[in-house]
């Protein structure tokens, strides 16, 4: 009979654990629960990114009002190539653990809620940490001056420079 | 002895419920868990908003790169006055249920993940629905042309026009 109590207890725990698990999985797969605000979008071009990166356009530029906004998901280890924006860029860290580096400066860690202002024409890159993904909103104003100038990939030595 | 099993079951459920409750409350109060990306900030001025509105600046404008970004929380029923931006504005709906209206058009409902491009010089207002709060990121580019021109408050008749 004591066993009976233990069984009930175990069953209750298992049911609750299974429920939490299913919920978290649904959230990850559909992005329709409170866990994700924007959909993951499509794969970013491998010509300008290293690793697996997803981009969901939120605002498309048009001739009257040039301010493309996109939601970007970097899988662990993934990052952009070095690049610059003639009109600058703003990044909002939405979740995970990100890296951001401007040429000649150390890598800066980005956590949920951080905001970065990348000045016009300053070469920089951004991406996920080696073990945790990173989600950001990227705002690229003043695109009449040019949207982005792509440069060389971020080498593994550059990417791993934080951990030395 | 059967009671013993029931007690264990009830205790397990109570412990789990209490834990969930505490977690949710911590999230609400500190904004440090997965529930909130940005802090709520400070009360917005009552001269340009109706009801209770909170603003957290994320990016401050400077002379080199004029693109203020802010996180705004509208409590239920709260809304901005009518206003326009000489450089336009982008809104990203982060949660809750929002209203957005451009002069001469019907109210548009905003849900988590929606993005709105408000063209330069178009009078508009935004806020929460009457019963559910609304959280948004507001991006105001091209502020060299002027950041915002405030107009009259949104009347209750205008605010309630959706439900007619």
Could you explain the architecture of this structure?
2 copies of one chain form a homodimer. The first copy, chain A, has helices spanning 2-30, 156-159; strands at residues 42-43, 49-50, 53-59, 69-74, 79-80, 83-84, 89-102, 108-111, 115-118, 124-128, 134-139, 149-150. In chain A, strands 1, 3, 4, 7, 8, 9, 10 and 11 form an 8-stranded antiparallel β-sheet that branches. A two-stranded antiparallel ribbon of chain A has the order 2-5. The first copy, chain A, has a two-stranded antiparallel sheet with strand order 6-12. Chain A contains 2 helices and 12 strands. The radius of gyration of chain A is 20 Å and the shape is globular. Chain A is an alpha+beta fold. The model of chain A is unreliable at 13-34 (pLDDT under 50).
Summarize the structure.
Two copies of one chain form a homodimer. By secondary structure, chain A is α+β, with helices and mostly antiparallel strands.
Helix and strand layout, with pairings?
2 copies of one chain form a homodimer.
Chain A: H1 2-30, E1 42-43, E2 49-50, E3 53-59, E4 69-74, E5 79-80, E6 83-84, E7 89-102, E8 108-111, E9 115-118, E10 124-128, E11 134-139, E12 149-150, H2 156-159
């Amino acid at each position: 009979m004591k066993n009976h109590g233990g069984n009930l207890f175990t069953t209750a725990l298992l049911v609750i654990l299974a429920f939490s698990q299913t919920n978290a999985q649904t959230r990850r797969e559909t992005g329709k629960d409170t866990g994700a605000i924007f959909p993951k979008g499509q794969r970013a071009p491998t010509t300008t990114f290293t690793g697996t990166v997803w981009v969901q356009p939120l605002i498309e530029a048009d001739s009257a009002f040039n301010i493309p906004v996109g939601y970007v998901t970097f899988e662990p280890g993934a990052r952009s190539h070095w690049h610059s924006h003639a009109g600058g860029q703003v990044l909002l860290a939405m979740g995970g653990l990100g890296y951001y580096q401007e040429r000649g400066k150390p890598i800066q860690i980005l956590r949920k809620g951080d905001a970065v202002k990348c000045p016009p024409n300053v070469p920089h890159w951004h991406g996920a940490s080696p073990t945790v993904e990173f989600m950001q909103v990227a705002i690229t104003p003043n695109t009449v001056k040019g949207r982005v100038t792509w440069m060389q990939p971020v080498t593994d030595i550059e990417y791993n420079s934080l951990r030395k």
